[in-house]
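Incident log, entry 3
Record: Putative T-protein (122 residues)
Problem: checksum mismatch between cached and fresh output.
Input:
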Amino acid sequence: MTTRHTSDDSGAAEGTPGAGAGDAVDPAVRAELSRLRDSIDNIDAAVVHMLAERFKCTQQVGHLKANHQLPPADPARESRQIARLRELAENAKLDPAFAEKFLNFIIAEVIRHHESIADGSR
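Fresh output:
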């Protein structure tokens, strides 16, 4: 597996042209950085797979809504989900505002899918 590290605080990865100051880094620090980056990469892969599973379910919801002429959006459910996710975020020591923004981004994409499904079934 090729490892790409794009969202941490260190700049260039080991072996990358232009690594510069990283050449003088203690090997133990470099090893720990690599271990942490590998964990980040694995978590990112898990997040992508979980989002794919979530969208498979929401596609089924979209078809069910379209088949029964239900609206693509459900503002009451969305509000409950946002409140629920904010509480989960607080309990997990994650910024609830970030969690809400993330869920709003996902909800907007789901609604777009549901609208597309509904347009195709008319």
